[in-house]
Write a structure and sequence with these properties.
With about 525 residues, the protein is α+β, with helices and mostly antiparallel strands. It contains eight helices and 29 strands. The chain is about 20% helix and about 30% strand. A hairpin with a 2-residue loop joins strand 8 and strand 9.
């Protein structure tokens, strides 16, 4: 999701635009001042529209070049930003820092190093909005990028195709654990959609499905139900069974927003309900979320006060009365002084995937994973290249068997803007996978709802207790390869059913579905 930023940041810039071109006439000077005002207040698109025509009047006006370069940079139009920033160096040394970021984004490591050295050699931190910690972190990016780019992992990356992607942007792919449902956010025009203040179509939520036995995704459609509104609606989290969706909705001024919860009932998504105050905060933004397999732990990101810096990742747990607990910051093993965002908790409840601008990132956001150890977390591991690049890599999700990852990218060769891609990990060892189960009446084939208990046969340990979904009597459970489990299925009015199951690694490389048939009791 292209997270909405609060536009106050630029007002903290330490330099004030005061110069004027000697070649401007009175009217052009007024135009420049108007454009400057929009720039200072963070309306970069309007500033560009006003100021761009002035470039031909005075091609040597360094101040104008810097403003345009910075404006294009803030809008992530790095190609357009580059030429203006090169000219703007003579006005503000910050242009060197921005150029270093532009070159790193394009994996031009040597050019990026030259520019960060140019910036560092003449910087006065009393007169710049750039912090010394940012410069230090950027140099770390260069070091990490050199390391990871030199040793790429063997993977296969494929575009999800025209049935999903368009000339507009698609991002935040969410998948159900069985990889049969894909939900994502897109900025595409459709009947009734409008343009936002930046000239982009408002965000809406779309879905696609894989029918049984099919390998390709169906043509994407607007999510059914009452989830999408006239303004921005972005999906940020999906329950493993695909029946609970978490949505980020902007407020009326399009600056902040909150997390909402929608459930799939009788094939339709319900009107999203704003989540509790323990999660949403009036003075912060919560842009992403993930829920555990059992629905009892909820992870989310927030830039609320009291964190380590920028966005941090928090979690709440379900209390016995059904309410959420107070939020707990995941601590400095996960969170850094930079932005940490987009949590995704694996169905095993122990592996956390997230994106961070800190840790060992190779540029902007990189994707990391960490394992839960008692009440703490392991040191986050960078997923390496090509999962991570020198661009922002965020809102990544992975299949339950960890063989397929899904992400968005604006790489060359796509359909336009951000496209959705699938990564097939060819060297990753399969650890566990999700099985989809259904309970039916032996004679009538009627769907049944009940409880399922799973026990490790060798150890006798209770592995999990599951409840079928009232919608279709389905449930999902996690298994390790080559381990024997006993499944006990209980439904009121039916004989108890038990079965010993075991799957090989080869079995779990394919989608596995099981149907459990129960016989009514004689009385």
């Amino acid at each position: 999701m292209k997270r909405i930023k609060i536009l106050i940041v630029l007002l903290l810039c330490s330099f004030v635009v005061v110069g004027q071109s000697n070649l401007f006439n009175k009217n052009q000077r007024k135009v420049f001042l108007d454009g400057e005002s929009y720039y200072i207040h963070g309306d970069y698109l309007t500033a560009i529209k006003i100021l761009q025509p002035l470039v031909t009047v005075d091609t040597s006006f360094k101040e104008l070049s810097y403003i345009l370069g910075d404006s294009y940079f803030q809008l992530k139009n790095y190609k357009a930003a580059e030429s203006h920033l090169i000219e703007g160096i003579g006005f503000n040394n910050d242009a060197n820092f921005l150029l270093a970021k532009v070159y790193l984004n394009d994996a031009q490591l040597e050019a990026a190093k030259i520019k960060i050295d140019d910036f560092d050699s003449s910087v006065d931190f009393q007169k710049t909005k750039i912090k010394a910690s940012e410069v230090k972190q950027f140099k770390s990016y260069l070091k990490n990028a050199k390391k990871y780019l030199a040793k790429p992992e063997i993977v296969n990356i494929s575009n999800l195709g025209r049935q999903i992607n368009t000339e507009n942007s698609e991002y935040v792919p969410l998948i159900s654990s069985d990889e049969e449902l894909l939900i994502f956010t897109s900025r595409r025009m459709h009947e009734g959609n409008q343009l936002d203040p930046f000239g982009q179509p408002f965000e809406d939520i779309y879905y696609s499905e894989k029918t049984e036995g099919k390998k390709n995704w169906s043509t994407a459609k607007l999510l059914n139900g009452e989830v999408n509104t006239p303004t921005n609606d972005a999906c940020v989290g999906l329950s493993p069974d695909g029946y609970q969706l978490f949505v980020f909705r902007t407020n009326e001024n399009l600056i902040g927003g909150d997390l909402y919860d929608s459930k799939k009932i009788l094939g339709e998504w319900t009107i999203p309900v704003k989540m509790d105050d323990q999660i949403n905060n009036d003075y912060s933004v919560e842009p992403s979320a993930s829920i555990s397999l059992y629905g009892d732990v909820f992870y989310f990101s927030s830039n609320r006060e009291g964190g380590y810096g920028g966005f941090d990742i928090y979690r709440v747990v379900r209390l016995p009365n059904g309410d959420w607990s107070l939020p707990l910051n995941l601590g400095d093993k996960i969170n850094t002084p930079f932005n940490d965002d987009a949590p995704y908790i694996h169905p095993n409840g122990k592996t956390l995937y997230f994106s961070s601008e800190g840790h060992s990132s190779m540029g902007g956001f990189d994707i990391f994973k960490s394992e839960k150890i008692d009440t703490s977390w392991s040191t986050p591991e960078n997923l390496g290249h090509p999962t991570n690049t020198t661009k922002d890599d965020i809102f990544f999700t992975i299949s339950a068997n960890e063989q397929h990852g899904y992400y968005s990218s604006d790489k060359e060769g796509g359909f336009g803007g951000q496209d959705l891609y699938q990564i097939d990990y060819l060297e990753k060892r399969l650890r566990q996978s999700v099985i989809r189960g259904t309970v039916k009446n032996t004679f009538s084939q009627e769907f049944l709802n009940g409880d399922i208990t799973m026990i490790d046969v060798e150890t006798g340990d209770l592995v999990g207790v599951y409840v079928t979904n009232p919608e279709d009597s389905r449930f999902i459970f996690l298994v390790n390869p080559n381990v024997e489990y006993e499944l006990i299925v209980e439904v009121d009015g039916y004989e108890e059913y038990s079965e010993i199951i075991q799957f090989s690694i080869e079995d779990l490389m394919e989608t596995q579905r099981m149907v459990f048939y129960l016989t009514p009791t004689s009385d």
